Amino acid sequence: MNTVKSRFSYKWISLLPLSVFLVLIIGGCNYILPNKPPYVRKVNPADSAVFTIGEVVNFKVDAYDVDGKIIQVVFKAPNTTGYSDTVAPYEFLWPTATLVSGDYHVEIKAIDDQGEPYIIQAPVRVVDILTTSAGRDTTFTDSRTSYVLQAVLQPFSTGTWSILSGTGGAISDIHNKNATLTGLPCQAYTLRWSINNGAVQVSSDVIIRFNYQPSKANAGTDQWIFNGTTTAILNAETPKDGNGLWEILSGGSGVFSNSSSPTTSFTGQLCIDYKLIWRVSTPCASTADTVDIKFKPYLTPANAGPDQSFTDGRKTTTLAANPTGLGTGLWTVTSGSGGVFGNTSDPKSGFIGQPCETYILRWTISTLCESSSDEMTLSFNDLPSTPNAGPDLYITDGTIFAQLNATPPVNGTGLWTILSGGGGSLSDPSKPNTMFYGQQCHTYTLRWTVSTPCISAFDEVNVVLNQVEIKADAGQDRRISDGQLSVNLQGNSPGTNTTGSWSIISGTNGFIENSANPGSLFTGINGQIYTLKWTLSGACLENSDMVVISFISGVVLEDSRDRKTYRAIKLGDQYWMSENLNFSMQGSNAYDYSANSASIYGRLYDWNTAQSACPAGWHLPSDNEWRQLEVFLGMDANTSLMEWYRGGAEGGMLKEQGNQYWTAPNAGATNISGFTARPGGYRAPGGQFGGINTHAGFWSSTGNTEGKAIYRALHTDKSQAGRDWYDKGYGFSIRCVKN
């Protein structure tokens, strides 16, 4: 190397004679002094520094040359190909991510302008990321008090144990990861294992418990000593861990022959229930179990037997209590008087009581120590036969007496009494079929009572004297449409002791020729509907029935526009068409566009068209004119103002009878008015048809500015008349009313 050559040259020159040296200096102006080597010094890191794998080590060096300049500093480290820095300060960043724990050297070489190098070696220690574990928490439930610790120690690190909590603990070697911990029973120790690798320090804690647990106590089975002795041999389970000890928990005084023996004998007192406890203990804890010891003879639970009840008059029986076992038995009377036992100590004793008396008897079984009781109920009754006073009696022939018809009692005696109704008498109250005498037009309630010495029961019967039996029948409703204004009524005959009477309930200017005659001539006026009442009256009460008679004669209307004719009728003060209008005009349609349908049901008109559809001298009725018709038929005026289906039979009075045009049920249809409404259905604004044979709709002239108008509706399922607002674009039927 150049460094070596320079040293030899210098040494050789130093040996020359001074005269020669001077000649060289003076005479050789071109002579060059030998090169001096460069110098390098590491600034960072310190030789003692420790780095964690993954860190980047920053090398810094100072380098200089006394007779020239530094050309470059070359760093050569493990896992790298080398790095050259030509500008001071000279630095190198060394990554350690791919290394393993160990000691490494990084070569640092400074090179001057003569190519002369100077080399140093920089030591570096690299270690893994520091983690540790003091081991798993451990609990010992046996008697041990020492444990070999199980800590983790990484290479290039040192560890130290310390005791954070727990009394009386010692560690055999605080720097040994597998040191032995020695402690005291029933103590819990928290230990810390701290490790240091020069770069960082970490620690981990572990809990070691010396918790000596006893075996689970088992005191053995309960014992019942019922032979009269007071000593029992106990049978607790011998503990594997800990020591056992018997104690008396309840029951008073008693003696263990050896309280620490699981199978000791125990002596107590007669008739005492003892609860003994077997406790197994260690210095740390204890477990316990109890056993019951009874020193008493066995007591059979008392059972007095089933309740007994007699209804036939007897007063003796045999009891049915259970046997006494090891005890003795005793019968006593808890309630009831006059009863006698055959043998009070016999569970099957006989018993004699008193008639009509109920007893509560107690059966008690006793031993030297205790007793048990049970009760039963014993009844000696004499029940009467179930009374039957016979059916109610209705005497309608005018007589004032009746023969009663009670059932004779099998057990007990019977007696009739009068509960209500004045002036009655009995020929013999003790006879079931005695004669009863009363007064006409009176209703009596009689009681038939059957009695024994113990109890009585009764049944009642009603006797009605001179009850009117004929039900009034005013005949069938009729409509007279042939122009006649008189008709013979059709009431039923009153019979004997009864009179009949006709009266006019509604309708004006009607006349009954003979109100007492069931078939009297009745005269009315055209356009009126009359309701007549036929009343049957007897000496005691009356009943009645109603009939409707209408005098509705029609006229024929000819429509001059198409020469079609229509029937018209007078209803009250109004003349109405009794057929649906069938005049063809724009805005009207036959149902399903069928001419045959129009001839039967008329045409369907939208509301605007309906305003001018009626023939001359006639007009589309207003809502008030429809209401006038409904009130004439019997609807209340306030009800007529309501919407939807309302009223009673008014709709049926307008509908044509039968099912030729109306589908069933055509509810309430009488057509007593002669209006003869037929179900022509409707046409929706979109052209759809519906409701034929089930629905009849009729426009009124009353509308609003919201596109709706009032119409009348009749339906096969209803006897009422409907009133509602509907879209003016719908097509409904028309009935015209005379101007």
Draw up the topology in text:
Elements: H1 2-13, H2 18-27, E1 39-44, E2 50-52, E3 56-64, E4 70-76, E5 83-85, E6 90-95, E7 102-112, E8 117-127, E9 138-140, E10 146-148, E11 158-165, E12 170-171, E13 180-182, E14 187-196, E15 201-210, E16 223-225, E17 231-233, E18 243-250, E19 255-256, E20 265-267, E21 272-281, E22 286-295, E23 308-310, E24 316-318, E25 328-335, E26 340-341, E27 350-352, E28 357-366, E29 371-380, E30 393-395, E31 401-403, E32 413-420, E33 425-426, E34 435-437, E35 443-451, E36 456-465, E37 478-480, E38 486-488, E39 498-506, E40 511-512, E41 521-523, E42 528-538, E43 542-551, E44 554-558, E45 565-571, E46 574-577, E47 588-589, H3 595-601, E48 604-605, H4 607-610, E49 618-619, H5 623-632, H6 637-640, E50 644-646, H7 650-654, E51 680-683, E52 689-692, E53 695-703, E54 708-715, E55 721-727, E56 737-738
Parallel strand pairs: 2-8, 9-15, 16-22, 23-29, 30-36, 37-43
Antiparallel strand pairs: 1-3, 3-6, 4-5, 4-7, 7-8, 10-13, 11-14, 12-13, 14-15, 17-20, 18-21, 19-20, 21-22, 24-27, 25-28, 26-27, 28-29, 31-34, 32-35, 33-34, 35-36, 38-41, 39-42, 40-41, 42-43, 44-45, 45-46, 47-48, 49-56, 50-55, 51-52, 53-54, 54-55
